[in-house]
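Below is how a single chain appears once it has passed through the pipeline. First comes the sequence as given, then the structure the pipeline wrote out for it. We keep one example in the README because the format questions we get most often are answered faster by looking than by reading.
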Amino acid sequence: MQLFRHSYSTLVIIGGCILLLVSFGIRHSSGLYLIPISEHIQTGREVFGFAIAIQFLMIGIGSPIFGAIADKYSSSVAGLLGVIFFLIGLYLMSLVEGSILLIVSQIIFGFGCAGCGTAVILGAVGKAVTGKYQTLSLGVVMAAGSLGQFLIVPLTGFLIEMSDWQRSILYLCFISLIMILFSLVLTKHSSKSGINDEVNRSLASVLNEAFANKSYVLLTIGFFVCGFHISFIATHLPAYLDDLSLPMWIGSWSLALIGLFNVIGTLVFGHLGDLRSKKNLLVILYTLRALLFLIFIFLPKTEITVLIFASLLGILWLSTVPLTSGIISVIFGSKYMSMLYGFTFLSHQVGSFVGSWFGGRFYDYYGSYDIMWWACVILGFASAVVHFPIKETPLVKMAN
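Resulting structure:
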């Protein structure tokens, strides 16, 4: 396959796939700890929801920081630093005895997730693979992240049941050690480090140019909704299903199926993004998400309907990412892609912060998640509208 014809590109794609597989899998397992940790520290769900919201926010804050490190130094440096923070935060989570340490652990863990997450990895892949296969290659690494969700979330549920939640986190720490090795292959080590006139531009000038671009601003605003949807589902769906007296395995396997079917979704939409308008595909994705949430609100909640819902949502889950990052690459080129995607991803994580925290807040206040489900519907349609005016035109052409 032409996508993998260069050994350098292949190494970067493989390294990115492993990093996202492990980090996404572990990060999306967080919702499985909502009930056991909340019971252990004897709090309502808002505390855990807020802690995970802080995790999401730190991923967003860290993404442009690590993106800038990747653009200025190398993706390997950014990735390795991220893995170190990731391991420290994850280990601290196993020691939690109160709300303060829970929040601190999620601050460090979230910051680490940014370093071994999409901003750095998609930036590395975007630089390694250019041309007609770029969006597909971005879809491939995102599919690997979803595969990690399918593999690691049920494994985490099994570990929690077979041992206890604290020991299960230690097992996840050992699994995470593999990321150290693969973070080192994200950058081509050669004398051509990318230092040229374009690199010497100040980061401020690049950002000023980006935020003066209407399409970039709209893309950033729309990505907020994706984060809201994903964090609410990832953090609160297992507890929501537990409230419905469904078996415990439904929660972990629902998240796992979301990950499995997102492998299909990211590959399909990544391929379509190389052939069709990326912003039109995003309009379709957000519209379908809103309709799916609307239907789920009125469906009877059984094992079958929940698993079907999870499978359909999986196709639409992170398929937005290769399309969103692909549009950024089209408009601005790949040179500063890590940093520019990092700022767009910050908006995504602000949405994640709101989705996770408000989910717990509204549940503790109203005793249900009804408001959050309707918010998912409304915001989905709103995001579809926001993406309509986006122009997928290189900036140099738009300036004329």
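The chain has 18 helices and no strands.

See the next section for the split statistics.
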